[in-house]
Structure formats: C-alpha cells, structure tokens
Amino acid sequence: MIEQSTKVLPQANRRCRYDIVTHSPDETLAFGRELAALLKPPGLVLLEGDLGSGKTVLTKGIVAGLGAAPESEVTSPTFALVHEYSGERRVYHLDLYRIEGPHDLATLGLDEMLAQDATVIVEWGEKLGPHAPAPRFEIHLEHGGESERHIVVKEVQGD
User: Fold this and answer.
1) Alpha-carbon torsion 48, 101, 63, 72, what sign?
2) Res 3 pLDDT > 70
3) Which residue has the higher pLDDT, 55 or 132?
4) Rounded Cα gap, residues 87 and 96, in angstroms
5) What is the DSSP-derived secondary structure letter of residue 72?
6) What digits encode the pLDDT tens for the residues 58-79?
7) Above pLDDT 90, what percent of the chain?
8) How far apart are CA 105 and CA 110, in angstroms?
9) What are phi and psi of 63, to 5 degrees?
10) Which of 7, 23, 51, 141, CA to CA, is 20 to 30 A from 147?
C-alpha cells in the first residue's frame, strides 16, 4: 500500500493526494491499480510528463484496477487517438500528443465521453488547457533515473 499525502495546495479547490516515487515499472503499475480505487465515474484523469515518463504504464495499472481490461491489452493510442476498454467499467484512453489545436480537440468527442458512466484518461492532458472540466485528477510524472518515476497526483474539485 502506498502512503497517501493530504497536502492542501494554495488553490482551495486542489488537494495533493499523492507525492511518491516508484522504482520500477511494476511499482508504477501497482500504483495505478491502487489509484483506480479513487476514481468514480464519470471522471477525468489528466496525465502530464515527458516522453517515456510512465504515462502509459500508469494507465495500464489504472485500467486493470478499474476492471476495464487486463494490463496486457492496454496500449498507447498515439496514432488511434482514443482506445475504449469496457470490462467491469468503461474507460476511454486518449493520447493528445499529435493534437495541434482546438479544432483537433473538438473532433475527439471528449464531452460525449465525459457524459457517460466512464473514466476518461488523457495522456498529454496539459493540451486541454487550464479549463479542463472538474472534478478531475491531474497526475504529473517525471523521470527520476532509469526506472524511477516521481508521481504527483492532485485532485481538483472545481475551478
């Protein structure tokens, strides 16, 4: 079990839920499975971090933890833009790396996804801008070494 942080951030609507370091892809997967317990649909999860920082690995754990698909079936939707998983729960997994502007975003159907009883996980979530709908979780991942990842999870209740 990974220890939860409860730091209150300067904005009254934000709370730091976790500030942790994982030391291997297996630990990052396990953290994703644990994090899934916090996610109640409809929900939005924004993942931010450089290429190779662990966004897809964490997503594999979250999707498996929600019972939407086994980890082995979860892949990055870099070229497809959206993958849908629907086992016990429905999850939409988006990758905005190739999205270039508001028009591209509008064609994804994000509003329709968020209107469903589903969890929407967005890699490169910073491309949604500061006005992403709340409530949401914002997760920032950073390289900390070859296998080490620093992960900060913020819960945003409203803007």
Assistant:
1) negative
2) no
3) 55
4) 24
5) G
6) 999 999 999 999 999 999 888 7
7) 58
8) 8
9) -60, -45
10) 7
The domain ranges of the chain are 18-152
State the Cα–Cα distance between residues 64 and 21, nearest whole angstrom. Answer: 21
> Confidence band (pLDDT; 50, 70, 90) for 106?
confident
Answer whether 154's CB lies under 8 Å from 15's CB.
yes
Distant-in-sequence, close-in-space partners of 56: CB < 8 Å, separation ≥ 6: 74, 75, 76, 123
Number of C-beta neighbours around residue 59 at 10 A: 29
* CB hemisphere CA count around 5 (13 angstroms): 16
**Highest CATH level, class, for 18-152:** alpha beta
Residue 91 has pLDDT above 80, yes or no: yes
Q: Are 139 and 58 in contact (CB under 8 A)?
A: yes
Alpha helices (H) in 15-141, listed in sequence order: 25-35, 55-65, 102-106, 110-114
Please give the DSSP secondary-structure letter assigned to residue 125.
Answer: G
